Queue: 2 jobs
Job 1
Amino acid sequence: MSRMAQIIVLARYEDEVMEPLTRYDDTRTWRGRFERIPDWFVGGWYIEFFRTGQRVGVLKDLESLPWNNPECVQVMLHDEDDDCFGLWMFHDGALVEVPLPRTERFHKPAPPTQEFPPDPGSLWRTDAEHPRLPEQTPAHLRDPRPAW
């Protein structure tokens, strides 16, 4: 399914750590490679995806890197249906979404079969002029598979 998304990774002085993800690797579950953001002295990388299935597993690969300072790593994700970028940071060894003020991630119910890729939901500004915010799907009805 066509669905644009961007990921930005900010991590100070972690060039060597990010290097493996700047090369193509056909064994990954996701497609592409991170590009260095030019002229950033601290360290920033980005990648863009054009299909939902191309990005599944990218957060797990970022988690598995031997970060020198994981507490300083920030991952910003933007799906085409999001109002703004979401922020993920390390908590207890895992990248988790950090709640942002005046935003909420709305989830759809899980698909009927696993032939469909997992859906990340949509991050909406709750203070923006939306016709109406969607109804939140209860946690037990959401797809438990990671979408990133």
Job 2
Amino acid sequence: MTESRASASAEEIHAYLVEQLNPALRRPGMFGGETALWMLVDHLLFMEGQPTAWAEEKERLAERGCWDALGVRRQPSDHIPLIP
């Protein structure tokens, strides 16, 4: 039987989300596709105290014609700079 432990701390949750973000950006299909990627980003921004940042970014993408009701209209890397 496994030993029960307290819930993860905020710092542990944040570190886990950051750790998951890199492989999710590199291979989004393995993480559930675009929707899963956006959910991960949304959760990470919430942990960083910026819960409205993703909604604001979607508005900026929509203004540039890159976002609609179905999500990103082109490859995300065409519009979101990725760090190598």
